[in-house]
Amino acid sequence: MSAVRVKICGITRVEDALVAAAAGADAIGLVFYAKSPRAVSVEQAKAIIAALPPFVTSVGLFVDMPRSELQRILAEVPLDLLQFHGNESPEDCVGYGRPFIKALRVRPGDDITAAVARYPNASGVLLDTYVPGIPGGTGEAFDWDLVPHDLSKPVVLAGGLTPANVAAAVRQVNPYAVDVSGGVEASKGIKDADKVRAFVGQARLGASGL
């Protein structure tokens, strides 16, 4: 089993970003979606990214944002990677001078292989739980048996992951990375340092096969 990468999403404070980095997280996620309780402003995002140590990837999460608005954000915020979490077409995701991953919400009967194939320019795909009307951050897990093991893109597994179940998820799915937000929080948008450290440790434990 290969090493698994860890992304701590929904970061709203510099101190939480530093906890994630110190715990060994490979990436932190910044939510640019006004309806989310974890949404950040341009100023918050700039401060968080400026505080990150080297080799921690900053990921911006967007939901059907108009191109002009997204470009304005990118002109001010030096994001490394874009994460599209809405109904963006393949064409909507390119042209920003940044690599991107596309989130797909999974439910029984979906042809995940075909959905992934629609986004040939994506660096990877994030598989999250389908909940009607909610683009992500539901805190609910989906049936990991639905994930094909021969997808053409690296898989980032999300949806209802916690320190208690991430090792089992990694052993079963063998994803490229895991992504957590609510599962390591003290309250919405505020991370619990002990949960963050436990999550990273359990993800790596799962990847070790133990």
Automatic annotation (TrEMBL):
<dbReference type="GO" id="GO:0004640">
    <property type="term" value="F:phosphoribosylanthranilate isomerase activity"/>
</dbReference>
<keyword id="KW-0822">Tryptophan biosynthesis</keyword>
<comment type="pathway">
    <text>Amino-acid biosynthesis; L-tryptophan biosynthesis; L-tryptophan from chorismate: step 3/5.</text>
</comment>
<keyword id="KW-0413">Isomerase</keyword>
<protein>
    <recommendedName>
        <fullName>N-(5'-phosphoribosyl)anthranilate isomerase</fullName>
        <ecNumber>5.3.1.24</ecNumber>
    </recommendedName>
</protein>
<keyword id="KW-0028">Amino-acid biosynthesis</keyword>
<dbReference type="InterPro" id="IPR001240">
    <property type="entry name" value="PRAI_dom"/>
</dbReference>
<dbReference type="InterPro" id="IPR044643">
    <property type="entry name" value="TrpF_fam"/>
</dbReference>
<keyword id="KW-0057">Aromatic amino acid biosynthesis</keyword>
<dbReference type="InterPro" id="IPR013785">
    <property type="entry name" value="Aldolase_TIM"/>
</dbReference>
<dbReference type="InterPro" id="IPR011060">
    <property type="entry name" value="RibuloseP-bd_barrel"/>
</dbReference>
<dbReference type="Pfam" id="PF00697">
    <property type="entry name" value="PRAI"/>
</dbReference>
<feature type="domain" description="N-(5'phosphoribosyl) anthranilate isomerase (PRAI)">
    <location>
        <begin position="6"/>
        <end position="200"/>
    </location>
</feature>
<comment type="similarity">
    <text>Belongs to the TrpF family.</text>
</comment>
